[in-house]
Amino acid sequence: MNQLLDKLQNNILVADGAIGTILYSEGLDTCPEAYNLTHPDKVERIHRTYIEAGSDVIQTNTYGANFEKLKVFGLEHKVKDIHQAAVDIAKKAANDETFILGTVGGFRGIKQEDLELSSIQYHTEIQVATLVEAGVDGILFETYYDLEELTNIIKATKRKYDIPVIAQLTALNTNYLRNGTEINDALQQVAESGADIVGLNCHHGPHHMQQSFSHIELPNHAFLSCYPNASLLDIENSKFKYSDNAAYFGKVAEQLINEGVRLIGGCCGTTPEHIQYIKSSISGLKPVSEKNVVPITKYINQKEQSSKKQNLTSKVKSRPTIIVELDTPKHLDTDLFFRNIKKLDDADIDAVTLADNSLATVRISNVAAASIIKQRFDIEPLVHITCRDRNLIGLQSHLLGLSLLNINEILTITGDPSKIGHLPGATNVYDVNSKGLTEIALRFNRGINTDGDALKTKTNFNIAGAFDPNVRKLDGAVRRLEKKLESGTHYFITQPVYSKEKIKEVYEATKHIDAPLFIGVMPVTSYNNALFLHNEVPGIKLSEDILAQFEAVKDDKVKTKELSIKLSKELIDTVHEYFNGLYLITPFQKVDYTLELANYSKSITSTTQEAIL
Ligand SMILES: [Zn+2]
């Protein structure tokens, strides 16, 4: 058996604390790993101070030295050099008894990043190979938020090398990973994938780590490890700092040993002083071989919100369904807006869709409007949510608020950048894109909270995605639609289309897709409007014939409207040849247009249905 694992059979080993924290406190202005090449003496000194403080195990200064993170500093071509140098430095600092772990950090962070597993594996394997070849005593995978990423790389490493693997997850909650997996289950899976030591590091200080470990069983074929942060993060004089608590840290270390931890170190904010206190407080302790596991108190998620109304997906799958877009005003005189909502409601339209500051222009909050619509009318509000205006905290609180208001029809969109709107300097947040936002809403539908804990009630979101067929290559747009469908989008709403051919083309390109589409129709209101759409809106082209027809009646308002309605009706005829879903976009709050078109749609679809019957 390998010496490290052999030693752990009967002993507790003390690891080191943070390297980055010390370098930052000394004025580091690049990534800590760059110092392996430029200031190897400083890194070596930190290793030595940890060993002097009592670390039996140290880790290479390579946590963030992966391709993606080094790219930010223009160092992505130095991955191998940085790892090789890190092992050389650690070896210089180590004495004969010191174990050196080659550290590798996870790629997938707190945001749901779109990195493919295969690409992560490719880059991580280069790091692991360099560390193994340079002669480390074990590989430490740490700060992994994503279970799939971690188990995948453990398997790949164990297939190639006979070297101890220490694998640590990072959880934002004491009981669950972000995706709702119980930490105990997750660690058992990590052990089953081949890790020799499994545990947790980062995010939590010693108190919350102790809570986590109270729920963790001793794995059958692996040891437990824990590297807590020093404390919660505090802000003092605009600087982040951790509490000055080394003595306390040592005391909690003793409790962690009683929970079965055999390899104990420190993560962010910990210093050689913390390690000194751990060393002295655990001296004389022997590893435990059995423990009491406290079960997690579980909330039963059975109390689902029951909605008497059929959602739009099942409606449109079973019958012709009309949704109408009516955007909230830019001003506070809302009389006309709610009068129009009443007209749509009286006309038995299935839903009214409310954009979220579309074209990056400020309008009254669509949630406020939807909430009033819910109270006063029967028509269902469909609320658009853009990723532009809210960060991950705001988006999730927004979704929970919508659920509380029983507003369940949502459209997730990435959103137009602020540059195109009236406030070009406003920050574009984009913590996630529409796909990431859809995944969050679906997690809420499974009853899982933002940090993986129970929501106590499942949300009931029916999620729409946007589909723009007005592009040069429809294949690309269809592939994006397929991706949205894979991530869980329930149905799609298209941008307005202006030709029968386009509607047929969309049908042919999407008929293999098992999700309903609402086809957008927006009446052209005048010759000038036609010219604007044709010449200034990207992707939209009107035929020469249509432009000529509008030009011919341009001085006659009545005839212009008649033409507009006639052309829109022709489009609606074609929509209903292929689709149940019709999405009418109200031009300039002119709800009389949409009402006439909605009534027309109802008249032709009800006769079609009768004919079928
Ligand atoms: Zn940390």
From TrEMBL:
Molecular function GO terms recorded: metal ion binding; methionine synthase activity; methylenetetrahydrofolate reductase [NAD(P)H] activity
Q: Could you say which residues bind Zn(2+) here?
A: 202, 267-268
Query: What region holds the Hcy-binding domain?
Result: 1-282
Where would one find the signal peptide in this protein?
Answer: none
Keywords, sorted A to Z: FAD, Flavoprotein, Metal-binding, Methyltransferase, Oxidoreductase, Transferase, Zinc
- Cofactor(s), by name: Zn(2+); FAD
EC assignment:
2.1.1.10, 2.1.1.13
What PROSITE patterns does this protein's entry cite?
HCY
The pathway is:
One-carbon metabolism; tetrahydrofolate interconversion
InterPro entries on file: FAD-linked_oxidoreductase-like (IPR029041), HCY_dom (IPR003726), HCY_dom_sf (IPR036589), Mehydrof_redctse-like (IPR003171)
Taxonomic superkingdom: Bacteria
Any GO BP annotation: tetrahydrofolate interconversion
Q: Which Gene3D superfamilies match?
A: 3.20.20.220, Homocysteine-binding-like domain
Instruction: Give the NCBIfam families listed for this entry.
Output: PRK08645.1
State what protein this is by name: Bifunctional homocysteine S-methyltransferase/5,10-methylenetetrahydrofolate reductase
Natural source organism:
Staphylococcus caeli
Lineage, opening ranks: Bacteria, Bacillati, Bacillota, Bacilli, Bacillales
The primary gene name is metH
